[in-house]
Amino acid sequence: MTAVFRRLILLAAGNRFVSGFVRRYGMRLGASRFISGETLDAAVPAIRRLNDAGLKANTTLLGEGLHDTAAVQRVADAYAGILDRIAAERLTCNVALKLTHLGLNLGEDVAYGHLARLLRHAATHGNCIRIDMEESARVNATLRIYRRARADGFDNVGTVLQSYLYRAGDDLTALLPLAPNLRLVKGAYLEPPEIAYPKKADVDRNYVTLAERMLQSCGYSAIATHDERIIEHVIAFANTKGIGNDRFEFQMLYGIRPQLQLDLVRHGYRVLVAAPFGPEWYPFFMRRLAERPANVLFVLRNLVRG
Ligand SMILES: Cc1cc2nc3c(=O)[nH]c(=O)nc-3n(C[C@H](O)[C@H](O)[C@H](O)COP(=O)(O)OP(=O)(O)OC[C@H]3O[C@@H](n4cnc5c(N)ncnc54)[C@H](O)[C@@H]3O)c2cc1C
């Protein structure tokens, strides 16, 4: 049932009418709950509040799928400015970005050129960048670019594996010699059963298998989930295997399970909250709706209330 719902929302996200309507009214109807602001000026105090509560953060200028050279350049320049601002504000915050926002549609060399410049810039501030994982069609290019960055000597870069993909276990095996910094997620895109587990139970099971492997062999692991059962399992597993709290962190999204985030910090765990910002929030918001039927009810209730 959840899988069908998820599919329907992700399919609807591509519809012109749905897109027009949600883009127009979405911020008032609930999108504002999931983003730290429409501007960097608005995001900074939100990130500071997270830091003040003991939470680490990352931020993302929302957007993806660019095809225009000038627009990509503007995004790359904006990210350089974001890194400067994080440093100037002394925030505990790194950056997560999507390669299709940084020119992947114009070629791997274009995206890599911008990424390498930003990694150098981040390093001058002692900061790091994580490359988000997008649709399955982007996985090979994303992992190639991650490897290229590592081969060029950047160690302030991480990327992401998605447990819904059958290939994730093999990708992990191939990356392990690099002692990578990896974030593990379940996966947020619409993928066919030929390449991704259609059943949530299988996605969850694979998540646990991958998390256990990562905890034992990655340089650093980011366990990105709001799934309490999995979080409890990870804590118990780390305790049993003697894996210190400094070898991994939990990651959650801004506006989702805030009390759980604080409870984990209180118990001595590192928690990072992904706090994206920007006016291009539509695809991000639709993925959040697809994750949870209750979010759509929330939007509909706001719609009825006007
Ligand atoms: C820090 C972070 C970074 C991510 N980066 C990527 C990425 O690079 N690529 C990618 O494909 N995906 C990414 N995701 C999204 C991820 O793939 C999942 O779609 C998302 O995390 C929901 O799955 P879950 O693990 O929380 O488990 P689920 O089983 O979906 O949810 C478990 C519980 O968490 C709560 N919950 C989950 N989602 C929501 C929501 N939207 N609203 C309210 N409550 C919710 C509910 O209580 C739910 O019962 C990221 C997620 C996080 C937390």
Description:
The chain has two domains: 60 residues, no CATH class; 194 residues, TIM Barrel (Alpha-Beta Barrel), CATH 3.20.20. The protein is 52% helix and 12% strand. The chain contains twelve helices and eight strands. It has an eight-stranded parallel beta barrel, surrounded by seven helices. Helix 1 packs antiparallel against helix 11, helix 4 runs parallel beside helix 5 and helix 5 packs across helix 6. The radius of gyration is 19 Å and the shape is globular. Bound molecules: flavin-adenine dinucleotide (FAD). The site of flavin-adenine dinucleotide has 23 residues, from strand 4, strand 7 and helix 11.
Q: Estimate the mean pLDDT confidence.
A: 95
- Amount of helix: 40-55%
> What hetero molecules are bound to the protein chains?
flavin-adenine dinucleotide
CATH topology annotation of the largest domain: TIM Barrel
Determine the structural class based on helices, strands and strand pairing.
alpha/beta
CA gyration radius, whole angstroms: 19 Å
Number of strands: 8
- The dominant shape is globular
Total of DSSP H or I helical runs spanning 4+ residues: 12
* CATH architecture level-2 label of the largest domain: Alpha-Beta Barrel
Reading the helices and strands in chain order gives HHHEHEHEHEHEHEHEHEHH
Model regions low in confidence, pLDDT < 50 over at least 5 residues: none
According to CATH, what is the class of the largest domain? Alpha Beta
Biggest sheet: strands, sense, closure? Answer: 8 strands, parallel, barrel
> How many domains in all?
2
The fraction of residues assigned to DSSP E strands is 5-15%
Neighbour order of strands in the largest sheet: 1-2-3-4-5-6-7-8
- Distance linking N and C termini: 29 Å
